[in-house]
Amino acid sequence: MLDLLSGTTPAGHVATEARVLIALCGLVLCIWSLVKLRRRSLLVPTCTLFLTVGGAFVLFALFPTLFDQLSYAVGIRYPPGLYLIACVFAMILLVIHLAFRLSLLDERCRRLAMEIALLSGAEGRSSRPAPTDRRQG
Amino acid sequence: MPALNEGLVIGKVVRRVRESLLNAEVLVVNDGSGDNTATEAAAAGARVISLPFNCGYGVALLTGLTAAYRAGAEIVVTMDADGQHEPASIVPLLEPVRRGEADLSLGSRYLPGSVSYRAPALRRITSRCLGWLLSAIAGQRFTDTTTGFQGMNRQMLHRFVTLRDFPEKTPDADLILYALMTGSRVCEVPVTMHDDQGGESMHGLFKSMFYIPKLFTAILSVLLEYAHQRREKARC
């Protein structure tokens, strides 16, 4: 139980229970993304991102030493530190991506609303008599 | 005339504008109002275009300008629907445009000869600061850069309507700067402005606090866009 909570054995290796849990999380994320993609409720770029994250979970669960080696290779002596940095970086990327998508959609939505209003206005105008001026100046 | 929940005053404003400009068409853009703004404006003789939901002042303004442009308008006046802008000032506002001396005429509440209510301190300070900034960039003195009381000719209208990125969030000093950068002649005219008589102000305290940095970013955006256009021209 202690091994599962800490995620590592005293020797520094990832406990089997923790590896199973991480792999399951990765698999659930991948399956959820694919189901959402099939139902067209998740965009392909976002689905790709989730699949990548889920795939990374599964990969590091299957080959736990790979994560340690990667961490040492980039100069991080404490491997969980790399995990936190990667998470923060991924979150920032996701926020930037979503902010970009939101701005684009907001812009398109406003333009569409404007065109609808103009078309409705033009229709209303053509269906009623032209306004006559009361006085001429 | 962009309008949001101005049912109490819009009819009176439209009637007064029609009395000031006898052969002009008054166009009210109803920006998703929840009251009887559209019916009151139509009853007063205005042509009403209704946005399907509240899109903000900039979108309503662009909608009105686009409708006027498509209708073949030669001269256009934009003004607030809350009765703040005095319709009797429209004629002097349009004089420089009619005489061909300016493409865009701005109604100023700070020029000598203008009659104005005492605007809130924050708005006055913001307007002055923007005025100094715009004057420094453009090399021409401006006193009221946040005025929505403007007159323009078709050439100016064409430039605004075909602008690639119309500043829908901040159609103020940045739009004036764009006009100046594209070689348009811009002038200021003293006008009469009253305190608003109803509706919702688009410049509340919290909105203003966020609006000012947005406006500075928008000005920076115009400068970058202009630099980009110059580089493109030089390349061609």
Question: Would you mind describing this structure in some detail?
Answer:
The complex is a heterodimer of chains A (137) and B (236). Chain A has 137 residues and is mostly helical. Chain A has helices spanning 2-6, 16-38, 44-62, 64-73, 79-126. Chain A has two domains: 1-62; 78-125. Helix content of chain A is 77%, strand content 0%. Mean pLDDT of chain A is 80; it is low at 1-7 and 127-137. Chain B has helices at residues 10-20, 37-43, 57-70, 90-98, 121-138, 154-161, 173-181, 205-235, and strands spanning 2-3, 27-30, 47-50, 75-78, 104-108, 115-116, 150-153, 186-190, 192-193. Chain B has one domain (2-235): Alpha-Beta Complex (Spore Coat Polysaccharide Biosynthesis Protein SpsA, Chain A). Chain B has eight helices and nine strands. Chain B is globular and about 55 Å long. A four-stranded mixed beta sheet of chain B has the order 4-7-5-8, sandwiched between helices. By secondary structure, chain B is α/β, with parallel strands linked by helices.
Radius of gyration of chain A: 27 Å
Bulk shape of chain A: elongated
Distance linking N and C termini of chain B: 39 Å
Strand tally of chain B: 9
Main sheet: strands, sense, barrel of chain B: 4 strands, mixed
Number of strands of chain A: 0
Biggest chain pair interface? A-B, 18 and 23 residues
CATH H-level homologous superfamily name of chain B: Spore Coat Polysaccharide Biosynthesis Protein SpsA, Chain A
Structural class of chain A: mainly alpha
> What is the quaternary state of this protein?
heterodimer
Low-pLDDT ranges of chain B: none
Mean model confidence by pLDDT of chain B = 86
Q: Given this structure, which CATH class of chain B is correct?
A: Alpha Beta
Helix content of chain B: 40-55%
Instruction: Report the β-strand fraction of chain A as a percent range.
Output: under 5%
